[in-house]
Fold these 2 entries.
Entry 1:
Amino acid sequence: MSDMAITFLILGITIVLFIWGRFHPDLVAVASLLALYLTGVVDLSQAFSGFANTTVVLIASLFVVGEGLSRTGVTAYFGDKLIGAARGKPLRLIVLAMLATAILSGFISNTGTVATLMPAIVLASWGVGGTPSGFLIPVAFAANAGGLLTLAGTPPNIVVADALEAAGFRPFGFFEFSLIAIPLLVVAIVYMATIGKKLLPKNRTSIAPPAIDEEMEELAAVYSLDDNLYRMRVRKPSPLIGKSLREADIGRRFGVSVLQIEQHHDGPNVIGQPMPSPVRERMKSMMADPPALPDADMTINFNNVLIVTGTPAQVHELSVTMRLGLLPIDDAGHELSDLLSQEIGIAEVLLTPRSSYAGKIVADGAIARTFGVLILGIRRGDKLIETREPLRFGDALLVRGTWDAIGSMAEEKRNFVVVGQPEAIAGQVIELNTKSWISIAILAAMVVLMVTGVVPVVIASMLAAGAMLLTGCLTRTQAYRAISWSTVILIAAMIPMAIALEQTGGAEKIADGLVSTLGSIGPVPLLAGVFLVTAAFSQVISNTAATVLMAPIVLSAAAGLGVSPYPLMMGLAVAASSAFLTPIGTAPNLMVMAPGGYSFNDYMKVGAPLLAAFFALSLILIPLFWPF
């Protein structure tokens, strides 16, 4: 059996296994790689060349960039804007998400666009009462179609333009692709908003991220914070004035926790008159710093407001002894929400049976000193206990600290179990701070590098990922967790198949046969053949590789028939961006597979009608815009 026949046999079996869905796609891809090597179709370096492929590195880097945007609140901010614009309607969200994705994909890498927008769209999908599986395939398809809008939108466009220029023809203009891309994009959006959305699965691949306000209200109720959370103003005769929290030793003496110290300003305005209350509150909100943990060495001044938690008896003792005024807190849940930021979080932690902290006393600084967190409350069974009581197995602690500190407690699996989804809550804090703007600047710089071509796209993405780490937008652990390793392995393991199809001559044999057969009938059938062959290749190998393979064949066929190469080359470009039938057709398709919980069959079911529509519309419009 020839190498070409073996390659087609392995490809056929691989596709059948992908469609069957019995085994994980990445496992099937690795088996395909091994089969090609063991049968001698590819050598060792070719078999593992995919793991050093720039596309694989690009995708991994973009996952890190996307996580950096998520960790700094940019994703939550954009997701909140999407939810607001969608007005709670899933259909509006599909249209808006596809439009935003397509427009961005016309100017930057469609892979980068999906990596950037996907976390926000996942959040928005839950926000309109849907699931990610109802929105991510439309986003991937919009990224593929949007890449057609400009010359720089997708590599196949550049390959087509360069091939024309090399053959002595005028290359396509930067926006010339838009003539066909805009009608196709309109068709894609209308299709997904009508027929396509009914074909999308309703997978629940993950638990809906908790709504912050609801989560904080529930915690406030469980830990009775409506009765145990107080605001206390420092009066003039208070012995706290001039002392630090460390010197006052409030936690050990009174058993309360100070969550925050607010500077209070009731001073006059520029003309010496007291500011009206609404103006004062507005100025306060504009000038307020993000919530932070109290500095134990910060000096307490007159009129400072301490936010504390403790039992009524403890707080009363503190109030009398330290001469503090009590201010009412009407909504403890809302107050907890206000204490959240990109750096500071709140989580519930349980003590394990073998915890070394059993028997320790919170008021003496146990846990707090080790992890740098504050204990807001302790619950044992159905009752609250004081911070002076020794801890036991099963005690639940409500803690406030940095997200990194909470993450450190989660890693201490022998001592603690962190309850709920603190990382999901962290990603939903809608607050743009210094790191948010840094991450946005990093994204903008990456886009500029990609568009201008100062460095290769993969280098631009790696520089952006490294900048996210160096500037503290996310940690090394978070970066590793952000990468979808199954996606990376899948695409890396399928690259040897593309190499095998090219070097055995299998792809060229199919292309030559179909083009020569249909070309003898006429130019429109030839255009149909070019589209179908290129689209077929693009489902299983890189669409860039498919374009490189087909471009010289198409130019030769056009010369042989004595027709203009422009309609055929535009058909080639459109077909290369019409990989809707498999997740391995394009990087955006593959990136949304795991978050959406999609199978190969989902892509075929949703993508086949859209591919047919692109095919029919291309045969009608391309000869009108670029006559033969």
Entry 2:
Amino acid sequence: MNPAALRILPLGGLGEIGKNMTVLEYEDRLLVVDVGLRFPTPDMVGIDLVLPDFGYLRERVEDIEAIVITHAHEDHVGALPWVLRDLGPESAPPIFGGPLTVAMARSKLDEHRLREIEMQDVDPGQRISAGPFEVELIHMTHSIPDSCAVAASTELGTVLVTGDYKFDQTPVDGPPADVSRLAELGAEGLLVLCGDSTNADRPGFAPSESGVGPQLERVFARAPGRIVVTSFASNIHRVQQVVDAAVTLDRKVALVGRSMRKNVNVARSLGHIDVPEGMLIPTREIDDFADERLVVISTGSQGEPLSALRRMAHRDHPAVELHSGDTVVFSATPIPGNEQAVNETIDRLYHIGCDVITTRDAPVHASGHGFEEELKLMLNLVQPRYVMPVHGDFKRLHLHGRLAEAVGVDPARVFRGENGLVLEVDARGARFGERERAGMVFVDGVDIGDVADVALRDRRMLSADGIFIVVATISEQTGASVVDPEVIFRGVPFLDEADELVSEIRQAVDDSLARAAAEEIREIDLLQRALHDDLGQFIYDRLRRRPMVLPVVVEV
């Protein structure tokens, strides 16, 4: 009897950078690898976070055996509280990950008051039984400790989900990636590789994280005043390098940003960050030290609207007021899509008088994702039968597929997918199957909604073209207008002839009401709908814009 088919369903991370989430299905049981989020693009007005659409999991919550997290970056673990709230805490499956990954995930769940969820630390090499899956975490190197690839074995074969990785030969924390175990998987016969594609467009090898520390020290030594370093709050290795450079130059360190303080506290408790006694100072004491004695480590490397550095750049931070002579070091590169926000922040910093150092000026950042040669090394180590590039936009998925073909993988066995498109593998081969529900869910504050949410549409309309509010008062008996309509407008751009336009709108309202009265339309909602359509067309013909039109009909 042939084994059952294995289904691989990406719910996020394909065709985009972020919100990584992959579902493996075998014998009608599910294993979820990563539950990430991504940050909104500028057109997502007022949206705080973007999550994968996990409706598929909601419908099959009883079939989920476990959730496995590769590492503790937001694009792999950030959606976990939302997923668990949606599935129902009482129905939540067990959650597995490395010690730091679980500690940071647990801290995140505590904020959402999800304290009863079962979570378990797993060491690399340890085997976990999850229904028909045998799961093993394999140690990898990335920009955060406890990064692992996930090998999920079934009767049909083994799937390797790499998570984020690079083959750093001189990591700052712990041993290099477990190349020997990856080679063993290749010798045993790997069925499918789901590999990180983030840097599939960059030739050569990624520079080692250990090379960043000396560069930071050189930049610090040249800075005459206060130094502000911004990086991802979860980049524990980078925080350690900044602390080391500060120690060498006899500077105190202040952590600014809630997520930065929280993550550093978790990492220190697990021994991943070593800070000498007395080095860290609270933010309230920043002004007590001379500028040349201080380094501030801050969130905001991606220009996020409410982040600490963004608020500093706009002179809106309660604890840090930047001034001329400060040096701001961007120890990160912009995630694709964030370039505009980062550039705006940098420009504001220059306006204040700060000296800004980015990766264009000095090698103060090393990517945590492998370049082309490392992706090829992974392919040659594990020798997969099938390859499914993941974790990247469509350009990078395509380039990763070409790298697989370059090292000898049959092009017919390279599957460039997209979110919601299932890869089905059985004894006869592999093929794309039917699409499942996938997409985006928006978070606004603490509420979530789908991509078609009318509120987002309205925000876009308001931000682009403004709003007209028209109040019409009509006779209950005849439906005719009894007083001049009131017209209120806000945010309508380039409105030079306002008085003339208001008069024309009033006439258009009277004309619309007269037509409705002639057709004996009396219902308020029908009258408002007719006014909305007539005024919308009139305003577009007049202004070539589509502001929001809110008609209000009052009967007297």
